[in-house]
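Below is how a single chain appears once it has passed through the pipeline. First comes the sequence as given, then the structure the pipeline wrote out for it. We keep one example in the README because the format questions we get most often are answered faster by looking than by reading.
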Amino acid sequence: MNIKKLLPLAMIIIIAMLVAFFVSYKITVAVRTSSQPVTEETTAAVEETTVNTEETTASGNIAVELTEIPTPKKVTMPADESWCLVLLNAYYKMDSSYEPQLTEVVEGTGIYLDSRVAEKFIQMYNAALSDSVTLTPASGYVSLDRQTRNYDKQVESLIASGLSEEQSKVQAIFYVLPEGCSEHNYGLAIDIGWIADSFADSPAYSWLKKHAAEYGFIERYTADKEGITHYQASPWHWRYVGVDAAKAMKADNLCLEEYLGKLN
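Resulting structure:
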């Protein structure tokens, strides 16, 4: 057998195999990317018309699947010191007539919080800086109109994935709360760093896990509490509840629903 004659044929076969491999790889990546759900976290200070790809998370499994869309009870912002413990979720909705007094958390970011919460975040932000950690604000207050658009986009995304409209409206709640049900609508929560699961591997997250309760903030949505919160784990989402409540919840590993005794 003439080896010299077989060499060109062998090269052609190897090249064909490499081309097939890279084509298959690109198709796989494209499918994975297109299946990612939209998340709710967007600041109202910048009314964008498109969804930022950095605001997308790859949580593909719905741990808690609601069977129908809840009819939330309307709650008002308490006038006493319990204001920081007001509960918003799929079952509790803010009074749409309430207008929070807002303060920019870090000058130039265009991200705002309830002024009382902003004051506490600034204290925490400066404390982290002294430890060479930057708690970069990613999202704060979200208007009701923006919340509606975010929820509708999530519904559209799920419909495009093959679910019915009704199924999509129910399952969307696991990723984006309807208008008035998000803590962002009251300006009580801030997203820090970047909105992706990988934030849990960052120095900022490690610092928050250790120190956030000292400033009254809790990690609102954790994987072990999805069955109670009915919302995806969100390591970037931190809610102000006050120092005493934050320390108690951290010590006993409680989410806000458990702490308040309002379980659905």
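The chain has two domains: 1-34, 37-260.

See the next section for the split statistics.
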